[in-house]
Write a structure and sequence with these properties.
The protein is an alpha+beta fold. Helix content is about 20%, strand content about 30%. Helix 2 packs antiparallel against helix 3.
Length: about 220
């Protein structure tokens, strides 16, 4: 029985070892406030801060993922649910939009091996990330080109939501990148969009599908 309990705890709490340092800092602040509340007798408030501290740590988890992709496979850059797969303003590109709830892993991964191009940051609104108009939110576009070929791209755009107020980009412009490398994260609920050349790819994911960053195959090169 003791072995079963240990296995259950390891499986349910194993994510604690994947929390990013920034998440540990936020969580520690919550625990300190929690302790102060319990010390002065504000037990209900202390319990709320205890729960908030745990949720904060859970949000900042960064699980180890080392998936092997074939040469013709484009990796999904984020966890979440596919909102849409369609052509938008550019008739030559197909856009895959993914909604990330606050319970999804919020680290973004490189879709391909190659090189980053330019990185474009734009201020915008803060609508809910699953809103059809969320493409007008604050956003950060990271250009990604396969093996230096400008016609083969899988750009990743990070977008804030109503709660998310901070975009983090961890990779510089004009630098080598490997499929699965960390690109950055958006804090507390967001959206990620992938821009692909319409005539060079076959998108595999569909609207409503649950996907995982650096695990799900998003599309195939033709």
């Amino acid at each position: 029985m003791l072995t079963d309990i240990q296995r259950t705890l390891a499986k349910s709490l194993g994510w604690l070892g994947t929390v990013l340092p920034l998440g540990l800092k936020f969580s520690a602040v919550g625990l300190i406030i929690c302790a102060i509340c319990f010390w002065i007798g504000w037990n209900k408030l202390g319990f709320l801060f205890f729960v908030a501290s745990g949720l904060c740590a859970y949000f900042f988890r960064d699980p180890k993922r080392e998936t092997h992709f074939e040469a013709d496979e484009i990796a999904c850059p984020a966890d979440g649910t596919v909102l849409s797969v369609k052509t938008e303003e550019d008739p030559n590109s197909v856009v895959v939009r993914i909604f990330l709830s606050i319970f999804d892993v919020h680290v973004q991964y490189s879709t391909i091996t190659g090189k980053t191009g330019m990185i474009f940051y734009n201020q915008g609104t803060f609508l809910f990330a699953d809103n059809p108009e969320a493409n007008k939110n604050e956003r950060n576009l990271i250009q990604l080109f396969k093996d230096g070929d400008p016609t083969k791209y899988a750009h990743v755009e990070q977008l804030t939501g109503a709660i998310a107020r901070r975009i983090e980009c961890w990779i510089p412009a004009q630098s080598p990148v490997k499929q699965g490398d960390h690109l950055g994260m958006v804090r507390f609920g967001s959206q990620v969009a992938v821009y692909l050349p319409k005539d060079k790819v076959r998108v595999l994911v569909k609207k409503g599908q649950k996907v995982q960053g650096n695990i799900t195959v998003l599309a195939l090169w033709k």
